[in-house]
Amino acid sequence: MEVILTHNKSDFDALASSVAAKKLHPEALVILHDDIQENVRHYLAIYRDHFSFIKRSDVDWRHVTTCILTDTGSPASAAEETDMLPEQAAVVIYDHHPPPKKKLKNYVYIMEPTGSATSILVNRIKEKQLDITSEEATLFGLGIYADTGSFMFSHTSKKDMEAVLYLMDYGMNLEIIRQFNEETLNKKQQKLFHQLLSKQETMEKNGVRITLCRITVPQLEGQLNTVTEKLLEMINTDAVITLVHTRNKSFIVGRSRTRRFSILSLVKPFGGSGHLGAAGLSLRGEPDAVYEQLCAVIPECMEPSTSARTIMSRPVKTVTSDTSVEDAYNLMLRFGHNGFPVVNENDELEGIISRRDLDKAMQHKLAHAPVKGYMSSNPYYAAETDSIEYVQKLMIQHNIGRVPVFGDSGTITGIISRTDMIDWMQQDTAYAVQKKKNIATYIKQYLQPPIAFLLEEIGIKAEKEGLHAYITGGMIRDLIMERPSEDMDIIIEGDAPSFAAAYAEEKMGTVHIHESFGTATVTLPDQIKVDFSSARTEYYERPASLPTVRHSNIREDLYRRDFTINAMAASICPGTFGDLLDFFKGWEDIKEKTLRVLHNLSYVEDPTRILRGLRFEYRLSFRMDERAERLAKEAGSSIKTLSNSRTINEMKLLFKETDPYFSLERLYELDVLDDFLPHAYWGFRAKEMLEHWAVPLYRESWFHYLLCLYMEKPDLLAKARFLAVSKEQKRFLESFIYLSGLPRSFYMQRLGTIHDALSSCRSEDLEAVSAYFKYALSDYAVSEALLDYQTKRQQLPLLRGTDLIAAGMTPSRDFRHYLFEVEKAALNGEMTTKQEALQFVTGRLQT
């Protein structure tokens, strides 16, 4: 016997997920609790006949073989009778709450960080292509809308939205969802709301404001969850905790809008569960004792205030007070900033110059005036130890877009912009904390122990020197894909060459420094190489040019990368070891096998990123997303500015790592083939040549791959001359152009006549042209004639000069003529032996 069970006080997500579970487990019976929320009861009063339920009392728990739980991770929270489950009974859990640290035997945990348990099940129904009725689709939608707050709660995920889109195709009725999902309070709830509102007490610690509302009533009437959410909307606070005592039980419900106060941590000591931002439970106990325990737990759930140092950008780009308006304006364009701190000759802060200030000055034709005349003087600033809330208050009260941050020495050590603040606010939710990723286990599992040890060692050294150190790029990507990696790329927020030199000295290794790029390579005694780079940003003077590099911070360093899958970093410093920095959702793109560029000008700045994208597509079985492909198609003008040598070098790399047919087909699909390779044509003849031409026989196969693109029409070959960069390539191409340009009638002559023109041609040239006639032109007669000529020519010579001397002839300039005529006659089949050749010379050529 299989049963489906959910938690007491069932809400719409509990009911909907139970019904959805039956679609996946059709033999199971759905148990409906007597204790359900009032709006769920109203819904079932109308729609109950569309679904099949049984009561808990109808179940003989001793005969249950499988218990399927939805929207809860604990059988005990669903029904006390589950204690009677046979020891061998299996338990399957579908839940969107955090998984337990200790997993039990015979339990199958299907737990995902979605906003609703129903979403997990609906997406599995979609995968299995199971049919659902419009009534089921509407109920499933109710579960998702209710538990995500109509997609407004912070724990809402992409999977919730995908599930609802799927349900729309099956007749999900939004009017019914609106009717039963309205959050208006009924009379009982309004009474409860006002009772709690009048009995509130507030405590504040580390900048977090918590409101506790406590009342005692004979019986709890109304949904405490809904009332608590309304209180959080009404009260100016970071979190609301409602505590309601009745005759037999106490009920605790919490709601938080900040990650610095975890409701889940609050209820865990009492045996409760839920989300970081929303949870609740009921328990027995003396009311005052429950209250005192709750008050003792609240301070422990408050995280310390985040300091300005944590989110500030560094190093700070500044301008001096005598910098011209035009120069400051150009710097803003280069680095994409909207303002700079202005300092004097002693690096002391004098003001802030914004893009708006510079725009006005430029409009008034004051480009050569110093910025000190247009900057905002007496700027507001913060210390590294100030809280982010303090900085946020400065920005709001004074309507400023950036706040310089000072260190203990009194110098500017960082700056907090609106972008930094928005990023922090987006992360400042309970769900964002829940989603925070750490790859320390990946590092230990997929890297060789010596490499993992080196990372920890470098992180410890960096922290001692007050620096931040990260691994980044390909190593992060490979680890997430659960593949080993040996790319030791370390990013230092600071002076990487100096750090690398000191590290090499400590380890008795060698260091090679590239000062202009802020990079260094350390070779250790065991020949392990570690690449160090200073966190940097880049700007391009013009499209497709090589970048100019400046020191920056880790975020800007990642922003300059080609694709999001390569734009992640992980800390290797103690305390944060393995913490993943994924500003651009690279993790999701890896899981979805998608290549996304970071910004719209990515290909304009560096068109070769398109070719790198193809290498990743082939090597990783990924695919560019629609935006990346569209931007590639629009990058033609930038591609055409690439130098010939750079294009060829990138093509060499492309064909070294990919199948040429795949890459050329993709370049054609993206409509950039003739932008990279002028006049190239990817047609039938090119494809046939590429498929059949034995180009791997050639040392530089990339050259022959590309030549295939110039074989569609006879006159195209001459336009491929720009591809030939070496002396041998130029020789081969000219020979190919000559041979392919001879009239067909020429190859239909006797082989001796052909030999007159082709005797100096190399065998590989003849073989290539034979393939061209066969596969590109489908002219099998010419192809066979060339192969016949080549084969018979390899049997030559029948006669040498020494043979003529041995026959008594005096050496002369005529020898060459005699021997060549012998070759022609042999090719024509007029002789096959040396004796016949001598007779030919003495009998015909000397007379």
From TrEMBL:
The keyword Nucleotidyltransferase applies. Keywords: CBS domain, Magnesium, Metal-binding, Nucleotide-binding, Nucleotidyltransferase, RNA-binding, Transferase, tRNA processing, tRNA-binding. GO terms for molecular function: metal ion binding; nucleotide binding; nucleotidyltransferase activity; tRNA binding. Residues 312-371, 375-433 form the CBS domain. Pfam families: CBS, DHH, PolyA_pol. InterPro entries: CBS_dom, CBS_dom_sf, DDH_dom, DHH_sf, NT_sf, PolA_pol_head_dom, tRNA_nt/polyA_polymerase. SMART domains: CBS. One of its GO terms (biological process) is tRNA processing. Its cofactor is Mg(2+). The keyword Transferase applies. Belongs to the tRNA nucleotidyltransferase/poly(A) polymerase family. This is tRNA nucleotidyltransferase (CCA-adding enzyme).
